[in-house]
Design goal:
Helix content of chain B: 25-40%
Number of strands of chain B: 29
CATH class of the largest domain in chain A: Mainly Alpha
Strand content of chain A: 5-15%
Chains: A mainly alpha (139), B alpha+beta (784), C alpha+beta (289)
CATH architecture of the largest domain in chain A: Orthogonal Bundle
CATH class of the domain at 66-157 and 219-297 in chain B: Alpha Beta
Number of helices of chain A: 5
Structural class of chain B: alpha+beta
Distance between the termini of chain B: 61 Å
CATH topology of the largest domain in chain A: DNA polymerase, domain 1
Distance between the termini of chain A: 31 Å
Number of strands of chain A: 3
CATH architecture of the domain at 66-157 and 219-297 in chain B: Alpha-Beta Complex
Largest sheet of chain A: 3 strands, antiparallel
Number of helices of chain B: 21
Structural class of chain A: mainly alpha
Oligomer: heterotrimer
Strand order of the largest sheet of chain B: 4-6-2-13-10-11-12
Radius of gyration of chain A: 14 Å
Number of domains of chain A: 2
Strand order of the largest sheet of chain A: 2-1-3
Chain lengths: 139, 784, 289
Amino acid sequence: MTRLLDVLRHDLALTGTKEGCGEGECGSCSVMLNGVLINSCLVPVAQADGADIVTIEGVCGQEKLNRVQQAFLECGGAQCGICTPGMILATLHLFDRHPHPTQEQIQEGLNGNLCRCTGYMRIFAAAEKAASSDSGAIG
Amino acid sequence: MLRAPVREASRGQLGHFQAGIRPLDTQRRGEQLQSERIVGKPVFRKEGLAKVLGAARYVDDISLPGMIFGATVRSAVPRGRVRSIEYGPGIPWDEFTIVTAKDIPGHNYVALISNDWPCLADGFVNHPQEPILLLAHPDRHLLPLAVGAVKIEYEELPSVHSIEESESGTTVVWGEDNILKSYLLEKGDVDAAFREPGILIIEGEYTTGAQEHLYIENNGAIAAYSELEGVTFWGSLQCPFYAHKALMAVTGLPEDKVRVIQVETGGAFGGKEDYPSMIGAHAALLAMKSGHPVKIIYDRMEDMAATTKRHPSRARHRTAVTKDGRLLAADIDFCLDGGAYSTLSSTVLSRATIHSGGAYYWPNIRVRSKAYATNTPPHGAFRGFGAPQALFATERHMDRVAKAAGLTPEEFRRRNLLRTGETTSTGQEIRQQIDLPGWMERALDHAGYYEKKAQFDRQNPDSLHKKGIGFAVFLHGSGFTGSGERYLNSLVGVDATADGRIRVLVSSTEFGQGTNTILCQIAAEALGVDYDVVEMAPADTSIVPNSGPTVASRTAMVVGRLVHSAATGLKQTLIASGLLSETYKTNELQNAARAYIATHGALCSMSRYEAPPDVYWDDQKYSGEAYAAFAWAAYVAEVTVDLTTYSVTVDDFVALQEVGRVLNPVLATGQIEGGVAQAIGYALYEKVAWDRGLMKNNQMTNYIIPTSQDQPKIRVFFEEVPFEFGAYGAKGIGELPMDGPAPAILNAIAHATGEEFNAIPLLPEDIAERLAMRAAVAAEMAAV
Amino acid sequence: MRSYPADYDLIAPGNLNSVLQLLHDEAGEWTPIAGGTEIMMLFGAGKLAARKLVSISLPDLGQIVEDGDSISIGGGCNFTQIRHHSGIQKHFPLLAQCAAWTGGIANQNRGTIGGNLANASPAADSPPALFAYAAELELISVRGTRRIPYEQFHLGYKKTALAPDELIRAIVLPKRFEKALGYGRKVGPRNAQAISKICVAATGSLRQGRVEEIRIGMGSVAPTPLRLLRTEQVLRGAVPNAATIAEARRVMASESAPIDDIRSTASYRTLVAGNLLEEMLRVFAGASR
């Protein structure tokens, strides 16, 4: 039984997805599985059979950054950067459900992604900024 | 007296959180500052693009050809002799590389200050999780099973697990008397002051617990060895040259046969200042013996249980204050729990000792401080480095002293906060133009302190949600203490490459706090070129000079200053050579650089640290100029204590700090917000559950840090009193926000509940116990 | 990651009948894995005793079916489905709330209610709401289905009424609480992603100032999720005054058995449980005016 996280990082060399805790608490391993945010350290790859997975490597557009990535740069949403891939995916998942999220919805949408550097403020600001900017689809 | 105006760096204009962080456009002293193009601007983080793309490569993202994996077998007991080691069944041991203390070619210690920290235990262990032997194998997943299959028998010996136990001397576990280090700081005549008639004497004891760094990236190392090149260590680390020195000692290899490279580091907070020397040495030993590159990555459980934490502390304050509320004398006893080996305890204790006086003028003060050994994994550097512990005690105590003197906390501070021209507890004269009462007032104003205090006092009696507001005023010395910076003797370079790129050469590392960005900003500003053409040379000991460790809030102030002078030197060289005129565009400088290199072979300008004048420190007397500069702050916390659950919520937080110069408003604001969040955790959430030196709650599920739904809005305000010997006036910023939130929050809780809590972490269980006890006593008294 | 992947087998027959047949034929050999949030955590920590796992991520188990009388939540439904289901939000709001409290967003997307109940942690967030709403469990095996009241499901610490070859087919909630008052609260170390120190959910009604109906479920105060039957008895028919509350606290302390553990203390739990009861009664009294 192999974890989806290990398949991504070792078999597919997609190292953008990180392992911070191995217990589904920190969210740095989060990816989209069939359009839904999950912690890949808790998913056996057999249960992802046939699934559509989006990792941070799949977020950037062809010509330019995804609006969430751009907002993170502008607002200082990344400090050490280790939580950033998961945080960006969680923000995209939030927008899928709430395209114009309230303050409370932003805070709740990111509640499974721990950041030790920022105190979350710049990340919330980046989410707000990204929600209010024009473009936005993945890819 | 000129005062730098307040700059609000964080204000939601378009959205609740949206930063609207804008370049600080206020009045400045001097035209020079007004013409800055890059310093003071919110330029993008230098390595930010890689981070948002997920392309930044941390240690565990890197693989080398032929690389195998390493793991550590650790002590299961707090103290004892190793009687036997057996390699159990079910593991193909012949495929493993095994390293014990006997395999260490050089010295069996991890070099730091004293050399008492074994790299591998040699027959005797002094704390749970102490490394005993190392294993390596190509199959990463086999290692945990192999570690579990090593059976070690111990002869256990009595062990010590608290400051009190260590202090009692019943069991001696280190040196003659368990004392890793002690200091005596004295100013004036404390004993005479306590004999003065008509004074009030207030006593208190304050304790702080251990804190886990919980960087989201665990410790990790890759090492490779060849006879030709020696050892190379790629690590998640703060101080490449600390690791370099440690690896030289362990391997016995000469300076040019040890190479340390810092790779992208996912958070550090001090936890990767000393510990990487240990894990790097382990990887190096396995690489040398196995003949393969070796990667060691800790999982979360191992990292939490085995690596350093913030020193727990106990402070006893005895304060003499005059009837009109002036501080007369302090007699302070301050202790740290250092863990099993001395590591950095002497310097943490030093900073705690010096900061125990807080931001007050003391005519007389005595601080007796000791660091005690216990059988715990050694405690180490953690943002603040002794100051959070010391300032928690002092700022809690001052609220109680104010109360005893019949003054409000703010009036008390107005009468006692340091002023320009007065001396600190080490006799250091404050030369900068400071206005602590003014800054305090401004912070209180931003927080709506007076209105809220009155409002809460009115509303609390009828509510199950008790609200309170409290504050702390404090300081943090920037850079190394005393003669530390002279001792570090930092060296910095700025060079140009043959293709016209400008590089900053420092051993100062980036781990989220913004080193790369601000140093490139400074270089670009000084050189008069665009920010985009300046980059950081790799933090590789074979390429960069030793600019000192990335600690002590010294990078902007000390290293930045050297970057400025090295960059200026490079510009002057080009102008003097005739290849560049006095005014120029970016590409013209690049062309000149290329031309210069074509003729001379290289273009590099170095700058060596020079101490500011009039900075004298006496290590024996423990007095003088402790720090080149202090940064100052006033923090206000508004809390709700829920009497149904006894939980504390921080509803609003105002952080006002004077930092000399804000080099990048987005990064600076982020540093303050992150530090405040970490300190809220320190005060209210983060408790290490010890079982005879073993951390029982070594999983993220059970070691609680705030989530996004726990964070209050943190409102950040900056003041600037430029420090002439810091880069563009900058002083240190990174550790300051760790010092103030805990006492501000507990002062607020005292206001909300009328109960004085003096220990952190303060959990709902502690509040419940106290309030229930109070209710029980009240009920008994009513019944009488 | 402390487990050796090759030591563990995970198979996915893909349909309910095959899974049930396997559980029956090779009884005791195979451990069902649904969303995996609990099992994979143990796997990562090197503490998963079960070596052979069979996936029960099955469409048959992942439906929420609503009719005039009840809502039937498939055991394989995840907490995201549960919290966002409009019928559950309307008829069983406390359960929607408990689902929203379970873990963080990503774990809600995977964790299933059946897996949560079968794991039988006394700290689980949903059980109190199931007590409050008189839930029944539908259990299924090759022998067919049977229904039991939720009160009969937990037999002891991490011990349930499930036979070794049985799965939780559905949780059935009767639609008779639309007019009931509801109260739910979770007390944890932080606002999200927290294992509860204590959690409670209650439904009830007041008539002329007296408690008429009352059902209270509580977590983290006993080896199993607990329905506070004797406390309910004290409250039923009583006026919620200081004396009633004091008696209710006393009886609750005697019918529960909170402990000191890594998360909290027995005395805190006892004190706060009583405070929550008081708060519940205040809320009910306020709502029924």
